[in-house]
Structures are given as C-alpha cells and as structure tokens.
Amino acid sequence: MRNHAIVSRTTGKARLAIWPLLAIFLAACGSGTSNESQAQSQSSPSAASANSTAAAAAPRPASVIPVGSATIVKSYPHDSKAFTQGLEFFDGHLYESTGRTGQSTLRECVLDTGKVLRSVALPAQEFGEGLTIFHGKVYQLTWLSKKGFIYDVRTLKKVGEFPYQFEGWGLTHDDASLILSDGSNQLRFIDPTSFAVTRTLEIYAGNEAVTNLNELELVHGEIFANIWHSTRIARIDPTSGQVKAWIELAPLTTKDPHEGEDVLNGIAYDDKTDRLVVTGKDWPHLFEIKLDDTSTNGQNPAKTE
Fold this sequence. Notes:
It is a single chain. This protein has four helices and 24 strands. With 305 residues, the chain is mainly beta. The protein has two domains: 19-57, no CATH class; 66-296, Neuraminidase (6 Propeller), CATH 2.120.10.30. A hairpin with a 2-residue loop joins strand 8 (128-134) and strand 9 (137-142). The model is unreliable at 1-57 and 298-305 (pLDDT under 50).
C-alpha cells in the first residue's frame, strides 16, 4: 500500500503533421519571414533578461539535486518495541508517537537514558501516527480513522479531537499552521483552531513528484521529511514545494539489524541546543547527527561536539 514512488510531472503530447500548411504559408509570406526573423533578433535587452530570469527560476532536474550525508555525533538508547511514527523535542524531553493497532502510544522520554517518563495508550482500534506540539498542546494523528487527538502537554491528559478527510502520516507546524502529510506528494496546512485546510503544497524534486512523505519536522524554516521505505530525508522549501537537497542516511540503517518494516522514521530538532536527532521504527537507538555542508548549504542544524 505504501510503495515508494517518484512520478513524472510532465506528459508528452502528440504533434500534428503541419509541414504542408507551413509550405503554403512560407510561399505566401515571401520575404516577410526574413523581416520577422530580423525583428526577433533585435528584441530588447529587457525581454532577453526576462527570459534568462525565467530559465534560472525553472526547477532543477531531479538528477542534479544535491545529496548530502551526516556524521553521527552520539547515539542514545531507544525502546526497540517503539514503532516510531512521530518525534519532537519540548522543554528538553523527547515526545514520541508510536504505531500499530492495539500498541499505539503517546510518550514522554528522557533522551540520554531512553527512560519513558509518561505514556498514554491510544484506544485499541487506533493506529498512531505523527505528532507535533503547538501552543501548549500535543496533536497526534491516527492513520485511517480520519481523526487526531489533542492533549495538554503538561499533563498528557486528552482534551479534544480533530477531524481530517485523508490518511494521517506525518505532522509538524510553522508559526500559524499544523502541517500534515498523508503518504502522497502533498502537504496540507491546517488551521489549528478550525482545522480547515488553508493551503495544499505539492512536493517535487525538479519535475518529479515525491510521494510517500512521512514524518515531518520544521528545521530552520525548511520542512524535513522522511520518505517511507527510503534512507533519505528530503529538505523541502515550504513556499515552492521543491526539494532543495536530500540527506542520505543509509549508513545509519546498518548500525543495528532491522526487519522489513523497521524503516528510518523520526526526526526531532531541538532549537534550544541546536541538536538534530533521528531514529527508525523499532530501532534500539536514536542518533544525534551533524549534517554536512551539501545537506545544509553551510547551515548545520546540529551540535558539532
């Protein structure tokens, strides 16, 4: 059901055979054709500049989007039975949403030790998905139920629910909106009060749609997204929807043995300590990482020591 795919944005169109008509036209116009060519060759500098600007703004082919790597700064213990669906820092602690029907939880953890301080079980029929913390509330998605849960971040007491009309996969937020992925190439910006969709952003790498967008995290104004069953994180421009760079984390997947669905998933950024942590589903470790300059264009959202 969740198969990784990159879909072509452009479609070919058949061309009509126009040579007979073109021959008649040229015969009728005579020298007018050369006059038109001369006029085109003398077009204004401003027009040429506009054409150059448009060409520069065109999306880069997917094949030339930079692929960066990361260095492991430190590893931390992680519950190897936690099917990680969402991960976020708040006040120095790590909050995690775990999945699987009958096993889904919301939990608060200590990063250094992996100790679970508090845990709330979801109803047995629910499959937990992404989470984010916004204005003192924890928002947690479910996969197929088309509803999410709202908790007070201080007590983890459930204080409400919210609806959406699509699958729930990953969740983050900016200054004004919740940002939700549903496994397609679309991100939806949602008003945190009315829960209306205020904007839909399609994600492309050049001209190719990037599907299976999963766990999300806002890092220095960019959206970082896990791609389900991929070893890469996409760095997404939240205005254009273009992938600015890939972060290749394949070396992390070999640190511990993993089974089929134990894929890379979980991104948490602590802006107070400038620390970036990643993990995977049922992984026994979390990894604090430092991104190279290819991944960050010289801006490293991670500690260097």
